[in-house]
Amino acid sequence: VQLVESGGGLVQAGGSLRLSCAASGRNFRSYAMGWFRQAPGKEREFVATINRNGSPYYRDSVKGRFTISRDNANNTVYLQMNSLEPEDTAVYYCAAAQIAGSAYDYWGPGTLVTVSS
Fold it and tell me: What's the gap between Cα 116 and its chain centre?
């Protein structure tokens, strides 16, 4: 599975962005998909995940602001980000896991999101 993120950019605080992650390969619908982020000087952290059945889970700081979704017909997972804050500035990575709840097996190269105050 190869993953490629897109949709990052510069946005003012309070604005919105939608990230996309296009997956190539077989059996996309069988993977749990996740979004992670890494801010400058910080460790990578979990943002959101969606399992093969479409059930989402979020880190507390993005609940109510971010929405993860998937389109199995087009092998794509999305992260809609609203009410962005400067603290959301990071490189965002898409990842795929063959087994939900286990380590992620595949990662994209990342897309940069910068939120200005």
Answer: 20
Residue 8 phi/psi, 5-degree rounding, is -70, 170
- Following DSSP, what letter does each residue of the chain receive, concatenated? -EEEEE--EEEETT--EEEEEEEESS-GGGSEEEEEEE-TTS--EEEEEE-TT--EEE-GGGTTTEEEEEEGGGTEEEEEE-S--GGG-EEEEEEEESSTTS---EE---EEEEEE-
At residue 115, the pLDDT reads 98
Q: What's the full length of the chain, in residues?
A: 117
Q: How far is CA 43 from CA 8, 39, 54, 69, in A?
A: 19, 7, 27, 25
Look at residue 101 in the predicted model and tell me its pLDDT. Answer: 77
In the predicted structure, residue 110 carries a pLDDT above the cut 90: yes
Does residue 19 carry a pLDDT above 80? yes
Tokens of 64: 């109510």
